[in-house]
Amino acid sequence: MNEKVFHVPIHNYSHVNHKVISYLITTSELQLSLRIKQVPTSAFTFHGAEHSRFSHCLGVYEIARQVISLFEQDNSDIWNAAESLLVMVAALLYDGGHSTYSLTFVRLFESDHERYTQDIFTSPDTLIYSFSLQGALDFPNKVASVIIHTYPNIQGVELISSQIYGDRMDDLRRDSYYTAAHYGQFALTRI
Prior knowledge:
Largest sheet: 2 strands, antiparallel
Helix content: 40-55%
Distance between the termini: 30 Å
Number of strands: 2
Shape: globular
Protein backbone atom coordinates (compact mmCIF):
# COMPACT_ATOMS: atom_id res chain seq x y z
CA MET A 1 0.00 0.00 0.00
CA ASN A 2 1.21 3.49 -0.78
CA GLU A 3 1.55 5.78 2.19
CA LYS A 4 -1.20 8.34 2.69
CA VAL A 5 -0.26 11.59 4.34
CA PHE A 6 -2.77 13.94 5.95
CA HIS A 7 -1.89 17.47 6.95
CA VAL A 8 -3.10 17.72 10.52
CA PRO A 9 -2.57 21.00 12.41
CA ILE A 10 -0.56 20.54 15.63
CA HIS A 11 1.10 17.33 14.36
CA ASN A 12 2.07 18.66 10.92
CA TYR A 13 1.47 15.37 9.14
CA SER A 14 -0.24 12.10 9.92
CA HIS A 15 1.17 9.11 8.07
CA VAL A 16 -0.96 6.09 7.21
CA ASN A 17 0.93 2.98 6.06
CA HIS A 18 -1.62 0.28 6.83
CA LYS A 19 -4.38 -0.77 4.45
CA VAL A 20 -6.86 -1.40 7.28
CA ILE A 21 -6.38 2.09 8.74
CA SER A 22 -6.62 3.67 5.30
CA TYR A 23 -9.94 1.90 4.69
CA LEU A 24 -11.28 2.74 8.15
CA ILE A 25 -10.67 6.45 7.53
CA THR A 26 -12.96 6.28 4.49
CA THR A 27 -15.87 4.54 6.24
CA SER A 28 -19.14 6.42 6.53
CA GLU A 29 -19.11 5.93 10.30
CA LEU A 30 -15.80 7.76 10.71
CA GLN A 31 -16.60 10.30 8.01
CA LEU A 32 -19.62 11.39 10.09
CA SER A 33 -17.15 12.76 12.62
CA LEU A 34 -16.18 15.42 10.06
CA ARG A 35 -19.46 17.15 10.91
CA ILE A 36 -19.20 16.83 14.69
CA LYS A 37 -17.37 19.65 16.45
CA GLN A 38 -14.79 18.66 19.02
CA VAL A 39 -15.79 21.43 21.46
CA PRO A 40 -19.21 22.61 20.22
CA THR A 41 -20.17 24.99 23.02
CA SER A 42 -16.68 26.52 23.24
CA ALA A 43 -17.02 27.80 19.68
CA PHE A 44 -19.47 30.43 20.96
CA THR A 45 -16.69 32.02 23.01
CA PHE A 46 -13.59 30.92 21.08
CA HIS A 47 -14.65 31.42 17.47
CA GLY A 48 -11.69 29.54 16.03
CA ALA A 49 -12.74 26.35 17.85
CA GLU A 50 -14.45 24.85 14.82
CA HIS A 51 -12.33 21.70 14.66
CA SER A 52 -13.95 18.31 14.17
CA ARG A 53 -13.91 14.95 15.89
CA PHE A 54 -12.38 13.59 12.68
CA SER A 55 -9.25 15.74 12.99
CA HIS A 56 -9.01 14.72 16.65
CA CYS A 57 -9.28 11.03 15.70
CA LEU A 58 -6.42 11.45 13.23
CA GLY A 59 -4.44 13.28 15.91
CA VAL A 60 -4.86 10.51 18.50
CA TYR A 61 -3.90 7.96 15.84
CA GLU A 62 -0.79 9.99 14.97
CA ILE A 63 0.35 10.20 18.59
CA ALA A 64 -0.13 6.44 19.02
CA ARG A 65 1.69 5.79 15.73
CA GLN A 66 4.67 7.88 16.81
CA VAL A 67 4.93 6.24 20.24
CA ILE A 68 4.58 2.74 18.78
CA SER A 69 7.24 3.56 16.19
CA LEU A 70 9.64 4.51 19.00
CA PHE A 71 8.78 1.32 20.90
CA GLU A 72 9.44 -0.79 17.80
CA GLN A 73 12.79 0.93 17.15
CA ASP A 74 13.88 0.26 20.71
CA ASN A 75 14.20 -3.48 19.96
CA SER A 76 13.61 -4.39 23.58
CA ASP A 77 10.89 -6.33 25.30
CA ILE A 78 8.91 -3.15 26.03
CA TRP A 79 6.46 -3.62 23.15
CA ASN A 80 4.94 -6.55 21.29
CA ALA A 81 5.04 -5.41 17.64
CA ALA A 82 2.21 -7.82 16.79
CA GLU A 83 -0.15 -5.47 18.65
CA SER A 84 0.86 -2.27 16.84
CA LEU A 85 -1.93 -2.27 14.26
CA LEU A 86 -4.51 -3.17 16.89
CA VAL A 87 -3.58 -0.23 19.13
CA MET A 88 -3.31 2.24 16.24
CA VAL A 89 -6.81 1.28 15.05
CA ALA A 90 -8.15 1.64 18.60
CA ALA A 91 -6.50 5.08 18.80
CA LEU A 92 -8.09 6.15 15.50
CA LEU A 93 -11.55 4.98 16.54
CA TYR A 94 -11.46 5.70 20.28
CA ASP A 95 -13.75 8.74 19.99
CA GLY A 96 -15.82 7.33 17.12
CA GLY A 97 -18.88 6.91 19.34
CA HIS A 98 -19.22 10.61 20.12
CA SER A 99 -22.28 12.37 18.85
CA THR A 100 -22.96 16.09 18.71
CA TYR A 101 -22.75 17.58 22.21
CA SER A 102 -22.09 14.12 23.66
CA LEU A 103 -19.64 15.32 26.31
CA THR A 104 -21.90 18.23 27.22
CA PHE A 105 -24.81 15.91 27.97
CA VAL A 106 -22.94 12.81 29.19
CA ARG A 107 -24.42 12.97 32.69
CA LEU A 108 -27.86 14.09 31.61
CA PHE A 109 -28.36 11.23 29.17
CA GLU A 110 -25.93 8.78 30.80
CA SER A 111 -24.14 8.33 27.50
CA ASP A 112 -20.91 6.37 27.16
CA HIS A 113 -19.00 7.11 23.97
CA GLU A 114 -16.67 4.17 24.55
CA ARG A 115 -19.62 1.74 24.60
CA TYR A 116 -21.08 3.39 21.49
CA THR A 117 -17.69 3.02 19.79
CA GLN A 118 -17.61 -0.64 20.83
CA ASP A 119 -21.09 -1.14 19.36
CA ILE A 120 -20.08 0.51 16.07
CA PHE A 121 -16.91 -1.54 15.86
CA THR A 122 -18.45 -4.93 16.65
CA SER A 123 -21.71 -4.61 14.70
CA PRO A 124 -21.65 -6.63 11.46
CA ASP A 125 -23.88 -3.91 9.96
CA THR A 126 -21.07 -1.31 9.86
CA LEU A 127 -18.34 -0.72 7.31
CA ILE A 128 -15.87 -0.32 10.15
CA TYR A 129 -16.56 -3.92 11.20
CA SER A 130 -16.21 -5.34 7.69
CA PHE A 131 -12.96 -3.44 6.97
CA SER A 132 -11.47 -4.37 10.32
CA LEU A 133 -11.94 -8.09 9.59
CA GLN A 134 -8.97 -7.72 7.26
CA GLY A 135 -6.82 -7.60 10.40
CA ALA A 136 -8.17 -10.99 11.62
CA LEU A 137 -11.54 -12.51 12.48
CA ASP A 138 -11.22 -11.57 16.16
CA PHE A 139 -9.76 -8.13 15.36
CA PRO A 140 -12.99 -6.09 15.90
CA ASN A 141 -13.51 -7.59 19.37
CA LYS A 142 -9.87 -7.03 20.33
CA VAL A 143 -10.01 -3.38 19.24
CA ALA A 144 -13.26 -2.92 21.15
CA SER A 145 -11.65 -4.38 24.27
CA VAL A 146 -8.80 -1.85 24.05
CA ILE A 147 -11.36 0.97 23.79
CA ILE A 148 -13.39 -0.21 26.80
CA HIS A 149 -10.25 -0.98 28.88
CA THR A 150 -10.62 -4.78 29.10
CA TYR A 151 -7.76 -5.77 26.78
CA PRO A 152 -5.16 -7.86 28.65
CA ASN A 153 -2.13 -5.87 27.44
CA ILE A 154 -2.38 -2.79 29.63
CA GLN A 155 0.25 -0.92 27.56
CA GLY A 156 -2.11 -0.66 24.60
CA VAL A 157 -4.96 0.57 26.76
CA GLU A 158 -2.75 3.06 28.63
CA LEU A 159 -1.37 4.46 25.37
CA ILE A 160 -4.88 5.55 24.38
CA SER A 161 -6.64 6.30 27.66
CA SER A 162 -4.72 6.96 30.88
CA GLN A 163 -3.34 10.03 32.64
CA ILE A 164 -0.79 10.71 29.91
CA TYR A 165 -2.26 9.26 26.76
CA GLY A 166 -2.97 10.04 23.14
CA ASP A 167 -6.56 11.18 23.52
CA ARG A 168 -5.84 13.68 26.29
CA MET A 169 -2.59 14.91 24.71
CA ASP A 170 -4.31 15.61 21.41
CA ASP A 171 -7.26 17.27 23.19
CA LEU A 172 -4.98 19.65 25.05
CA ARG A 173 -2.84 20.62 22.08
CA ARG A 174 -5.69 20.81 19.55
CA ASP A 175 -8.13 22.75 21.75
CA SER A 176 -5.35 25.12 22.78
CA TYR A 177 -4.36 25.69 19.15
CA TYR A 178 -7.88 26.38 17.90
CA THR A 179 -9.01 28.50 20.85
CA ALA A 180 -5.70 30.43 21.00
CA ALA A 181 -5.62 29.70 24.74
CA HIS A 182 -2.06 28.69 25.47
CA TYR A 183 -2.78 26.48 28.47
CA GLY A 184 -2.44 23.22 26.52
CA GLN A 185 0.92 23.78 24.91
CA PHE A 186 3.57 21.25 25.84
CA ALA A 187 6.50 19.56 24.14
CA LEU A 188 4.92 16.38 22.81
CA THR A 189 8.19 15.19 21.31
CA ARG A 190 9.86 15.29 24.73
CA ILE A 191 7.21 13.06 26.28
